[in-house]
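Q: Could you write out the predicted structure for this multi-component system? I'm mainly interested in how the pieces pack against one another.
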Amino acid sequence: MIIDPVLLTVSLVVAATPILLAAIGELVVERAGVLNLGVEGMMIVGAITGFATAVQTGSPVLGFVAAAAGGAALSLVFAGLTQGLLSNQVATGLALTLFGIGFSALIGQSYSGVRPPSIGGPLFGPLAGLPVIGPVLFGYDWVVYLALLLVLGTGLFLARTRAGLILRAVGENAEAAHALGYPVVRVRTLAIAFGGACAGLGGGYLSLVRVPQWTDGMTAGAGWIALAIVVFASWRPGRALFGAWLFGGISVLQLRLQAAGIAIPAQYLAMAPYLATILALVILSWKGGRGLAPAALGKPFHAAR
Amino acid sequence: MIRLERRPQPSRGWVIATPVLAVIATMIAGGLLFAVLGKNPVEAIRTIFWDPLFGDYASYSRPQLLVKAGPLILIAIGLSFGFRAQIWNIGAEGQYMVGALAGAAVGLAAYPTESPLIFPAMVVAGALGGFVWAMIPALLKIRFGTSEILVSLMLVYVAQQLLSAAAFGFLRNPEGMGFPGSRNFGDYPAAHNPELVAGTGLHWGGIAAVLAVIVAQVVFSRFLFGFQIRVAGEAPRAARFAGVRPGAMTLACLGISGALAGLAGIFEVTGPSGQITTEFASGYGFTAIIVAFLGRLNPVGILLAGLLMALTYIGGEIAQLMLSLPSAAIQAFQGMLLFFLLAFDVLANFRVRLGRKVAA
Amino acid sequence: MRDGQVTGETPLLAIRGLTKAYPGVVANADVSFRIAPGEVHALLGENGAGKSTLVKAIYGLVKPDAGEMRMLGAPYAPADPRAARAAGVAMVFQHFSLFEALTVAENVALGMEDPPKPRDLARRIAEVSRAYGLPLDPARLVGDLSAGERQRVEIVRCLLQDPKLLIMDEPTSVLTPQEVEILFATLRQLSAEGTAILYISHKLEEIRALCDGATILRRGKVVGACTPREVSAREMAEMMVGQTLTPPERGQPAMAEGEPALEVAGLSVASPIPFGTALKDIRFTVAAGEVLGIAGVAGNGQDELLLALSGELATAPAMIRAAGRDVGALGPNARRRLGFVSAPEERLGHAAVPAMSLVENALLSGAIRRGLVRMGLIDWKKTRAFAEEVIADYDVRTPGPGAAARSLSGGNLQKFVVGRELAQGPKVILINQPTWGVDAAAAAAIRQVILNRAAEGAAVVVISQDLDELLEISDRFAALNGGRMTSPRPVKGLTMDEIGMMMGGAHGMGAAAPEAGGIAHPQVTRA
């Protein structure tokens, strides 16, 4: 096979970044006991707000800010409905996705075929020239490193800080957290907004770097895969990184195989990432991993008395 | 301060009123959205909700209502079985595609034989195709505890590739001069699903949808099975107490919704669509989720909601032609409708109290 | 003039005219009482008397509509529990406010305003638990602890804040008699150090043993105050209930020679509940006409045992036998056909569907034995009649059979659920916590019907945490402990000490000082 492992690694990390960003955000949301199935919708809204802003201003940085803001804005709709009006989380998440896909296509109409401004070369430019470890360790743009920092930061936040402890407590037993005087709804709303911002960043990375252009429905299930990765990761940030890379590897590999003109029709290769996701879910659930889910996941909380 | 107070039992009046309120609110918000896009909001709303039925081209668009509502209702009725039991099949779009593929494959295998058995066999194969596709998330959930939400959704993307593979490969029309797409069932009478009454748009799919509404209504209101579905959704532990086996419930609900989605697929591919193409899937499976919720998971409600959603589809197409309103606008519009519905739902289960009592 | 000067010292907490109403019910009406520093003060009342609302107001979880509270003479109106904690009020909840997936140390930290660094916190937990004889391992997951140990976590969490007032809501309902003694020793030590304790309970003997003063609530109002050591339990009970009580009577003494109606042999099964308790080699038989009482601290396998007996949890076929055949693998409905009825502990969500009407809830378990379904079709008329029958026969207070289950008060729903099962001509009755949350008169009525069914020939298994109840209605007595069951013994002649040992004595007392050898390690294990 003529597939260069260094090149494969580099493109794997890039391919994994949007999903990793979305997954790390959703992981925090779920640790707070909320199931937001609207990741796909928030991602695609982030993709278009980021894209449009970057094109209009010429600044990719502003684009990413707008992507995060777009995702967060949509997530706040979810927060208002599920936390304020106690709507069903599954249905509301689906609504978010359906709305996001339509809404993004609406804004995106005038941006088809436009090229976004370049995000620039590797962050550690000179080091990227080293053989093998250069591209593998230093060959990425700043967003890739930001995503890795977010994984690290989220891990430390959840495990080491008091705020992280409170967030986990809210996700385990909202009634008890309320009885101890913690503001359940506020904690969850903040977590949801963080999740939305991360999903938006992930979408922005898709439209500004990975593809890079705008097409309708371009997330193509990336948000759903991010949701699956959270389960696969047993709600642990480090494992989410592993899951995202695994998924990135499979999707890059299948693209390479397509390009290499292998005898299998392209459509069957294109199924691989989705089938792999199902397989990953099965393997994890098989080992009883679902027992690790936050105990209050998806349950609405209403301070009745 | 706004406080929510749980009602001792859900308010019947609000359960019926909220969908109506949601539609009105969506019209207002949608009008604002259109105004932002630089369109005349009143004209846009009229084009979407009024013109398809009574406008200048109504004689063309009116039959489309049944064409579009049929699959939406059929799929949404199936989904309502699962949703009532809190089993979330959101991959109906995939089951719809696989149902169409399975049915079409049977028909194309028989080509050009003429027999009255061919169409019924295709219908059975279509239902079976959707059923089998839905069994994948069902069995994985029962055996391994995997989320049926994620698995059924992933399978939509897999089905999309399968559809594409069929259109380019194993079902491609050998006389199609290399273009992707299968033979057209319109040219194959034994496999064709024709318009039954000229000018109405009614085909076998519409009949199946009405039958599904009636059967679902009876099952939900009179049969123990319907009662058990509701118990399973309301209180899973109480369902086990009542002797409901969760695994069997998952199989039944996913199986029914898959089979009905598959039926919708086969009626579509043999009728309005005519052939397997890469563009065959048009989002009915996802829109049906909105229809199911808008109809409050109630069969009659779903019937009405399906007609309404079909109306917005057609209205959207007309608006696209007349006002050059982007086609995506209608999708955003439908998503908004679901938002408002969920938001107003709170009124059915809670009393909203303004202000707070002053502590003396 | 301030209240405190009446008794010559400033009370730690003085409550005057406190009122709190919810839609349709006044939880507290013009409640006044005082607690002195270092006093152990009992708040006594039946379920629904308004005790919980009152302490929630003191702990800042509920805002009173009217009335005032003073702490050491200064106005006290906590906006939230944090403010209450800052003012020196700490609370141990009846249903613990703990997080199963977090460690003991994390749970303690969550209950503190300014928790020290993890390492210091672990040390302080160890110190406090040693000082008060409450051994705890800070690194363990709370989900793996027994009920008694969990309560210790809550108490230690409170003590680390040096509270002036410690509120304890029904603390002994989850403890063995031996553990109750340990708790009381701790509370007396605290009281001697000057911490006031507000002790909520409906168990009169405990209050007489522990408390310096008592305020008695009925239907939200203060109906009396007393010094518990100076009055009899009966006097207090009548103040609390507002009427004289008659204990239930048995028509016939138990038929010891009756045929075994239910045989359990070597029942071992993993728990389907997260952090649940696996059942280990349980064996007993119950004769027709006999009542077997099963005691045990919550979380020792009671839920699992009921699930296994009722068929919600399948076991190997021969582990459970009834009517001369193996039934272990049969589901709930197949067992109902053989004459089983069961009432699980959790009413809303398990024994009844909250949002469904009483008619629909009658169908839930009555479909088979009352013939409410034919060929899959529901006979709604007959179902409604069945619901009406239960409502009338068991004095269920409700606007009608169309009311949703969740609109009923806890006691009324319990009457409906128990009535629904007992009205099915049962041969085997399985019931967990038959009178939980029901007032004394209704509890007596429920116990009477259970005994009547037994007299008619049903075999009865009652699981309860209320020892008095079990001793009153059982012929034989057994206890669950860590998923194992003691062999049943006749109730006559059992002493409280023996019962306590059957229930496992004091759990996990060795955890903080393993080198001391202590009593056996907790038996609660993960499935």
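A: Regarding packing and overall arrangement: Chain A has a mean pLDDT of 88.
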